[in-house]
Amino acid sequence: MFNFFSELKKIVEKEKLIEKYNIINMSGKILYVEGHKGICQLSKEIITFKVKGGIIFVEGQNMILNELSETTLKIVGDIKRVEAM
Fold this sequence. Notes:
Immunoglobulin-like; six-stranded antiparallel sheet
C-alpha cells in the first residue's frame, strides 16, 4: 500500500523533525502536518499545536490555517521557523 510520508522520506533529505513527525515544510510557504492532536495557539505570527510526545511551534508572518481536519492541518504563509518543543 502506498504511504505518502514513507515515500517522501525516501526522496527528501531527512531532517529530525520530518523523521519524528509527519510534517512537510514546502519552501517556507506551506506546512502540512499529519497526526496533530489539537491547536494550542493561533495567530498570524505564531501557531502551536500538539503532536504525540510534544508541541510544534511555528513562527512566521501572515500565516493562516488553510485546512484543518481531525488529524491533519495545513498552514499557509511566510513560515520562518518550525520547532519541536
